[in-house]
């Protein structure tokens, strides 16, 4: 879990993915020599902070977003949400501005008109526009891992594990997923135009709900707010059943992912969200069972060999 811990501790809220992107580029450069196939690495200014890996002759792409939720510093010690972080008084936050490193906590203030304001507690003012994220706190037990930002650093970790044995396929490390300004569109277009890739698996983390539980295997999502094409879902479920790997089926009415952007694009791309379920979503205490993590990696490896 050392790599996963490293990933969760790197700051990278939506719009601020430069550091995590560079970490991944360094990791890929250092470790890909030991992978089964050395990928073509595509990155640079025209891709902003996204990274694309091309293995062999790809027909399917894995998408894993590298950004997280957080807060922007506004006026008068006010905080503005990035994505959908939890609102709880006393949450520990960290960041950095022109005056140095920051360690503060979230203050939830109830106003007279029944609204709430979000402030930070610190003796000095933090530079406007500074981004604050949850303080790292990685906990590793025999049964589970618990940490801020398992969503989606665990999805990124999964993609890196799959990369070790991947022979044919693509991996996209995307940005902005948590705040809606997704970069998946131009990455998907690049893959479609240059490699004719029309299939996608979304390596992300889902929620423990009434129908999706810890310890029952990775979740294959049949729908959230958006509806993947049923014939592709049927193919995924058939292959998953044949694999013998533990999985469970998710059917939800809300939520979105990189797959949402693919569905809203003008590209004929089939997609399916497949991810381990977590509890305490978008809090500093996200929790995922290790057995579900294992089934996630195993199922991705199997599917990428079959699709």
Protein traits:
single chain; 307 residues; alpha/beta; Aminopeptidase; Elongation Factor Tu (Ef-tu), domain 3; 2 domains; eight-stranded mixed beta sheet; six-stranded antiparallel beta sheet; 7 helices; 19 strands; 28% helix
How would you characterize this protein structure?
This protein has helices spanning 2-9, 18-31, 150-163, 184-195, 230-243, 258-264, 290-306, and strands at residues 40-42, 51-55, 60-65, 70-73, 79-82, 92-97, 100-110, 116-120, 131-134, 139-140, 144-147, 169-174, 199-203, 206-207, 218-223, 247-251, 270-275, 277-278, 286-289. The protein is of the alpha/beta class and 307 residues long. The strands form four sheets. It has an eight-stranded mixed sheet, with helices on both faces. A six-stranded antiparallel sheet has the order 5-4-9-6-7-8, with no helix packed on it. Strands 10-11-19 form a three-stranded antiparallel sheet. It is 28% helix and 29% strand. The chain has seven helices and 19 strands. The chain folds into two domains: 2-68 and 139-306, Zn peptidases (Aminopeptidase, 3-Layer(aba) Sandwich); 71-134, Peptidase M42, domain 2 (Elongation Factor Tu (Ef-tu), domain 3), CATH 2.40.30.40. The radius of gyration is 19 Å and the shape is globular. Helix 1 (2-9) packs across helix 3, helix 3 crosses helix 7 and helix 5 packs across helix 7.
């Amino acid at each position: 879990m050392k790599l996963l811990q490293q990933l969760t501790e790197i700051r990278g809220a939506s719009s601020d993915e430069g550091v995590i992107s560079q970490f991944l580029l360094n990791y890929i450069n250092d470790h890909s020599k030991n992978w089964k196939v050395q990928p073509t690495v595509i990155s640079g200014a025209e891709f902003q902070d996204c990274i694309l890996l091309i293995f062999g002759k790809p027909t399917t792409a894995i998408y894993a977003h590298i950004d997280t939720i957080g807060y922007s510093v506004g006026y008068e010690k006010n905080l503005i949400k990035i994505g959908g972080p939890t609102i709880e008084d006393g949450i520990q936050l960290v960041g950095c501005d022109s005056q140095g490193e920051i360690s503060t906590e979230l203050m939830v203030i109830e106003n007279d008109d029944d609204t709430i304001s979000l402030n930070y507690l610190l003796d000095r003012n933090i530079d406007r526009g500074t981004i604050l994220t949850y303080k790292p706190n990685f906990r590793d037990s025999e049964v589970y891992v618990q940490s801020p930002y398992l969503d989606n650093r665990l999805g990124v970790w999964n993609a890196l594990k799959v990369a070790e044995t991947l022979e044919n396929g693509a991996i996209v490390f995307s940005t902005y997923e948590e705040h809606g300004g997704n970069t998946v569109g131009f990455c998907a277009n690049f893959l479609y135009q240059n490699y004719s890739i029309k299939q996608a698996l979304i390596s992300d983390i889902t929620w423990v709900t009434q129908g999706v539980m810890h310890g029952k295997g990775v979740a294959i999502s049949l729908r959230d707010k958006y509806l993947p094409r049923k014939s592709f879902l049927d193919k995924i479920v058939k292959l998953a059943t044949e694999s013998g790997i533990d999985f469970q089926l998710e059917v939800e009415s809300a939520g979105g992912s990189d797959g949402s952007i693919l569905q809203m694009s003008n590209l004929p791309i089939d997609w399916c969200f497949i991810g381990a379920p977590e509890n305490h979503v978008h809090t500093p205490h996200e929790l995922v069972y290790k057995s579900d993590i294992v089934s996630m990696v195993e199922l991705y490896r199997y599917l990428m060999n079959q699709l």
